[in-house]
User: Which sequence fits this backbone?
């Protein structure tokens, strides 16, 4: 169980010793001006990351066999240089797997993953189209998918992404899509929900989240749209008599969900369900960004009259938290 | 009561006489090659429009005093030229106001306007913010607005627009916005609903719908956003103690509802309610376009395997009616 | 054997009777102004298409059972209306399959398809990477693919496309890519040639060429990139031990060959071979367009000093035939 | 009267004590590595800004009650860190209002504001349209507007903006517009001049210039176009019988003066006066930018053969000072 | 002397014979349905153009030796087909050069060309920089240039262009540039005026105006910017000791006058004079377009309340004639 | 002969003295906090550049007469500040021209310049069009051009550019263009090769490479396209009877070789040779960029599984070195 987090270190007096478990995000050998070798590390946990120095790498208390991606136990103290925090380490060893919980080291959803998974299953259960229901059941029952779907972030950028982010996003979308499906009788609800569950499923392969969040080489060259199509094609191939037209529609939903060619969808949405999927996906991503920006502003101590900084993912616009500005109770945020 | 519509005339034998009430959309004097003057008219009703010729304009059975914008009773027969339908008119007089119902002459909503109006009022009634509620009540109680809001189309293009179109669109949006407001606790529901009711209110002045649908000169020079702001500013001025911040937010919702500068909004949405208003407005417009295209394809006798033509308002993409293609019951369309 | 072509009819005297085999591109029932039903057809062959009228559809000499897509033998004479040619038909029956050669009815390559196919096979044969060679051999040996690959046009637009167009384009590209591969030692020649052979293979399913050239519904919703990926994935699945990395690279070549997201490639070229494939594909398409425009100008009787019309596929620029302008021998064109 | 400016401090020896009046642009409490609290300030005046440290905030010679936006008298000395200038402060108190002149603390126009104001009034006086003249007179006579119009900067960015910048820009435009109005008889001179005087009037509310130059929250959400419209509408409402058409034209001039939707004008200029207003506004802004860049280059010691740096507001182009390059007298710059 | 113009023919009774001089804009041999050859011509004069038919080309009264570009005397009568005017010609011969005035056959400026030329010369005379003055004098004294500069249109499109259009545009610009030069002391007046006189001089070679207005082949391949540079370079080469720097600046003014790369200028304006030249050139072109549109609307009988049609060269916006709308005297238009 | 390079200094112990020849890229006088003057230099050679300090500029061992652009011999030692290398200089004098080889001080091609020049001459020799051959021979025989063509870089940016870069690029293009010319019989080989040799010839004047690589003022204002045209025009003028049409085509090739207006070509390629020239120029530039990025990644120690950083000149995409990833021999890179 981890009890010291990187976010806590800012309050530490210089020189005060502490112990902690961290993920090694980078490791480089360097030399001082007098040509003495030292190690420069970046250590991280779910609350942030920190630059660290090991001035005596040959000290027997410093393990030799650790590398980028390992979890380590480190002892040292903080120092400040030009207002930037650093850490000086004098002891370091590999952590035992029983000692740490991975969710302490990478940011993760604040929701109960098991509950989210149940909601996802309930949505699938509520569908009436036997072929689509069977397709989703097959895919979600695949043990590799089932584990990864619960863990995968929804995107790579640290500030947008956390373990369980994909599942959290999909469950929010299922809920939202269900509300919209009732409003437009034109829509085939089962097809829309199938699109929601599968649209980003390729991300479980496009991204890796062992050491921070990153893209796999295959992910960069093929992308999660193509990788999701591949997973769905294989599941359909295993399902005798899956209707051809339904296959075409499901693949079209995945292909077109970014809504524009320049966003990487090779096809524009051409069926009502694809149009709606693109809208709710975009709206939910933007509303999450808005909520995150408001939290960030609050964390930074901004008052109700101050707008957020310019938000890159929202065309560099600034945002105002309406409820705070109007002086409503904070509980609603 | 009108019983012959322009859409019916295609089935008529050439030479068969008929009577009917029509709106004069255009009137031009021309001469034949032998320098004989004749009149060229465009007559319309809610089902379409038709080119007409009066070869003997000095015939006493042809009224002298009619002009563009009048409703007339005309007698004549159809002829065909190069596969195009024309009408030859031999009698024409101004209609009496008791003889015709304006909604026969311009396309109008298929919904019950009174019921839509009640839904709008109920939405306003459901709000808890006294200032906003009062503001909407004041505006909707203004007799001029109240009549115009029930009649105004939502846009000028004949294929997108009909009498009552604005009200129909707003009521659909209120319903949709209500569903989204529940999903995101961040949202101030009353503010969002206020935005829905007022975002297009300037259209009651930007557009004229006496003779076909058109823009007013002021509408072209100022636009419905500015004209709506003007109406709301006047209502707020009449309401003592309307909070300044609330005024700013309501005006911002109207200003930003097109979502992009290049779509004519001088400000991007910068509050959560404005982001959602722009999304639902856009989604509802697109879903209406989709439904209209599917109806048009069905009218044109296209089969379930044929996509629609390229839809200009949807980036020229073609659309497939999923439910028809999958062979589901037509009732759902 | 067909001996009367649509392009010949312009020289015919009005009223002169003739017989010919044609493809039915469209068939519509209409009525005259006096409500007499007649048939309006569009008949085509490889030289063009023509509007035709059957004024007496109940005549026993007019077959009842023909439809869009059929090949028919028709007898009639030409007439002119407003400088437009029409055909009046008084006899029409379904053609027997022995009577006609499909290549008379749709435009087709002027090259020898068998020779092109041999060149393609020789290119595959010249490769040294056993896995890629096996992959191409497997795909090209599939009887359905092998027939379709020889027939498919490279695109739908009539002026750009002809039977065998895909094969002709690929063989030209193999030749060109081979020259470029020698120039840049960085390039993996086998991978590049594999990309050339497979990049447009999905077109054998995206397009249909039974009746004119058109897109299939699946083709519109998924596109030839996705459909080609599907074909290649199935072939790889059948090939034990096909290296994973090679699979990723081959799929990446197909995905990225349009070179830009806005041209429908979901990924930009990120390996040297993909960059080159995109360039030579684009250059060869443009040089074909240039050659076609020069032929069209010559056909239209333009002199060497006249530029072509504005070419849509080349940003509406006009083109000048250098060699003709400089007075060089025409044989080179 | 202020006698030490921030721009002077670069020449100061380290350690030399001095006194001065400054504006507090920011104030933050921080701690040293040994957890000792200190204050970090940003102080500014019309020549620039500087980071300052108060290492002993509890010293009785340091006032407790000052905050961002206050004007203070500070005593201390400069130090340099990594080539960056800092100031160490050991005494600080609030300034008395009699001690300082606001124009010493924010950059301001080098022109005589009273003279500019007279030019503006003379322009209004020269107009012949009684309604427009009355409108401008009303607005400029409003005490709040009249003070703010003389003080407001034309934009927020420090390098473009100074106290009196709006008035300076408008007077230059009046002069230029008058020259153009003579050249094109199509133009209604009074309407054009009215547009010049009012186009940016909303900036007196969009911007605040108490502490540096910044946007108000209302300014960010509504923008100066909307805020100017509001001011003009109120003035028109107070003017009985102001012609409706004139009102529409004046509002259109304000709405459209940015010239493009993507620059935040919800309407394109659609009358000759609006087209000209947009041109002269844009030209004058660019010529000011050019003059500023030439001054900056001269200040930085660049020779006549050196172009300016890349100018962001001019599409990142570099500029050459023609007259200097040709060796003409400097007096003309 | 020409006394019948194409614009007059619309009033003619069908069958009434008339004689007239016209320019042959196109000539094509065609055949009737019964294979009888006939000629199809397009004849034009400064008021418009008309399609004509010669049904008996072998008639001895029809000259054999005329071609596109010739001026002919034709006799015939008008006929109407489907509301389109045509002319049937029964006599035609080549005109003698003494019989016609070229300015009757192509649209031309309504100004006095000699007076415009004097204004141009006076502007040159007013310059103080001896090198620039000499350069302009040399170029304008070249007999070929001097004739062409007086005749050339400013652009190809018939509605924008007329004989003398280039000179008219340049003289307007000289006047306008002079007003702006006074306003900004930064500007080198002589350099700016030189840019005005030379910026479009390449048009005297890019365009041909013998038969309608068209581009030369060299004009299409090189453009008037390059062709103007060539003319100026030759003149400079003939002028000993022309300063290098001045040459660079003059060439830069020509190169950059379109203001944007995408408008065909290979360089952005980088000196103050080039920035101003681009602005005034653009403003004057737009103001001419506005005036033309207002004249066209008046000609078409539009009322003061009607906006113009969408103007292609002004981003498809519609325009309102302010003075007419406000009811001011028409004389000012 | 230079034996210490800047790239070597990173390995040096702090304080160890060394001597070396360097190019002075910048020289600035500054003062310490205690107002003591010192010199800040940037010295460079073909391997990079370094910031240097002369703390005792009045020391007699420090030359007084050196400036930006000079080559100097400097003695000193390295120091490190905040991980950045600096150099402290205690002796400095101007180098004698015999002491240094310019190619040691600026990056230069790794090819044999004489051999490249022979290849260029051989290409010219292989041409059959006497006029074009004569034109190229004339230009390349001009002593000033001939020297500069061998030295000029192909572009300014240090990572793309080196002495001899232009010649290296042209020879590669000649080779590539020759391969493509064979493939498309439509092409006039001599014209295409002429375009290759001349397209960038203006760079010998647009760029200066005496002190680092930079643009000349004339180069910035006119650009290499215009400057190349000027050189070619002068050569043509000296060649009696050079055909007009050939001149137009050669100039068009130079004008249009960037392929798009927004890339600075005032004309789009409108002849086949210009289309091909633009393609091969673009392809060769991109393949060079790819090769450079792969070398850079290898230098930085990236493994075969790591993609390059985002490449600015390739739309910020990352690249994968296929051959390394597949484990092929490194020799091919």
Assistant:
């Amino acid at each position: 169980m981890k009890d010291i987090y990187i976010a806590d270190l800012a309050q530490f007096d210089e020189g005060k010793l502490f112990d902690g478990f961290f993920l090694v995000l980078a490791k480089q050998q360097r030399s001082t001006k007098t040509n003495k070798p030292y190690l420069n590390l970046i250590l991280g946990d779910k609350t942030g990351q920190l630059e660290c120095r090991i001035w005596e790498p040959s000290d027997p208390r410093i393990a030799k066999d650790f590398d980028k991606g390992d979890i380590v136990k480190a002892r040292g103290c903080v120092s400040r240089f030009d207002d930037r925090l650093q850490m000086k380490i004098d002891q370091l060893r590999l952590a035992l797997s029983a000692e740490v919980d991975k969710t302490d080291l990478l940011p993760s959803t604040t929701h109960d993953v098991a509950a989210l998974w149940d909601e996802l299953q309930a949505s699938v259960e509520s569908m009436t189209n036997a072929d689509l229901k069977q397709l989703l059941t097959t895919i979600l029952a695949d043990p590799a998918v089932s584990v990864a779907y619960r863990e995968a972030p929804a995107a790579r950028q640290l500030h947008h992404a956390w373990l369980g982010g994909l599942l959290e996003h999909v469950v929010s979308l299922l809920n939202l899509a269900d509300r919209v499906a009732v409003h437009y009788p034109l829509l085939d609800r089962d097809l829309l929900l199938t699109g929601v569950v599968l649209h980003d499923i390729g991300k479980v392969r496009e991204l890796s989240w062992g050491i921070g969040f990153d893209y796999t080489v295959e992910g960069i060259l093929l992308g999660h749209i193509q990788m999701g199509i591949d997973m769905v094609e294989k599941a359909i191939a295993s399902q005798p008599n899956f209707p051809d037209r339904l296959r075409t529609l499901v693949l079209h939903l995945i292909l077109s969900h970014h809504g524009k060619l320049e966003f990487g969808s090779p096809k524009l949405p051409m069926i009502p369900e694809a149009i709606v999927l693109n809208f709710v996906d975009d709206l939910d991503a933007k509303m999450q960004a808005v909520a995150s920006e408001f939290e960030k502003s609050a964390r930074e101590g901004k008052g109700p009259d101050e707008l957020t900084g310019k938000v890159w993912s929202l065309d560099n616009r600034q945002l105002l938290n309406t409820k705070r500005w109007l002086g409503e109770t904070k509980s609603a945020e």
Summary: The longest strand of chain D covers residues 17-31. Chain D touches chain E through 46 residues (CB under 8 Å). Residues 132 and 194 of chain D are 7 Å apart (CA to CA). The beta strands of chain D are 17-31, 37-45, 48-54, 71-81, 84-94, 207-208, 214-215.
